[in-house]
């Protein structure tokens, strides 16, 4: 959906913006805050943490958001397709649907055969009763 795509892009922009703000704050602190009124620049963040943040920012800059947008759109298209009953197509494999239809046909054919067998058995019972009455009457 468009809202999912927008949410993904917004999250990426927010993360990138946060990193940019952290970088700007770090820059400001390095240039303007001195605890002992000397020209020595002090920073509230240690070098290792600063390098982690810069490394994360570089990784974020390497992300191809157009590709992510295309993949999200593709998934949205796949998940919005429905069959004639309104059921999303990706819920049911077509081979499963074909197998169920085949089983249903077989069950219906067996039911028809059982009905025919019942009719034949009823006729046989009727004929056996006639034979029994003829045998008993002799």
Structure overview:
The chain is mostly helical and 138 residues long. It has 2 domains: 1-91; 93-138. It contains 4 helices and no strands. It is rod-shaped, with a radius of gyration of 39 Å. The termini are far apart.
Helix proportion: over 70%
**String of helices and strands:** HHHH
Number of helices: 4
Radius of gyration (CA) equals 39 Å
Low-confidence stretches: none
Estimate what percentage of residues fall within beta strands: under 5%
Separation, N- and C-terminal Cα atoms: 87 Å
Number of domains: 2
User: What's the story with the biggest beta sheet?
Assistant: none
Helix/strand/pairing category: mainly alpha
Looking at the structure, what is the overall shape? rod-shaped
Overall mean confidence score, pLDDT = 80
Number of distinct beta strands: 0
Give a quick set of tags describing it.
mainly alpha, 78% helix, 2 domains, 138 residues
Short note summarizing the structure:
It is built from four helices and no strands. The protein is an all-alpha fold. It folds into two domains: 91 residues; 46 residues.
Layout: helices, strands, pairs:
Layout: H1 2-32, H2 47-62, H3 65-80, H4 94-137
């Amino acid at each position: 959906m468009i809202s999912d795509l927008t949410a993904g892009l917004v999250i990426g922009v927010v993360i990138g913006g946060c990193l940019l703000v952290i970088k700007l704050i770090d820059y400001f602190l390095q240039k303007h805050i001195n605890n002992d009124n000397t020209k020595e620049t002090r920073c509230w963040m240690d070098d290792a943490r600063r390098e982690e943040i810069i490394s994360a920012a570089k990784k974020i800059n390497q992300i191809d958001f157009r590709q992510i947008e295309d993949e999200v759109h593709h998934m949205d298209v796949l998940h919005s397709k429905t069959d004639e009953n309104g059921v999303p197509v990706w819920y049911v494999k077509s081979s499963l649907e074909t197998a169920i239809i085949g089983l249903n046909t077989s069950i219906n054919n067996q039911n028809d055969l059982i009905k025919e067998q019942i009719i034949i058995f009823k006729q046989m019972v009727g004929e056996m009763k006639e034979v029994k009455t003829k045998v008993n009457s002799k």
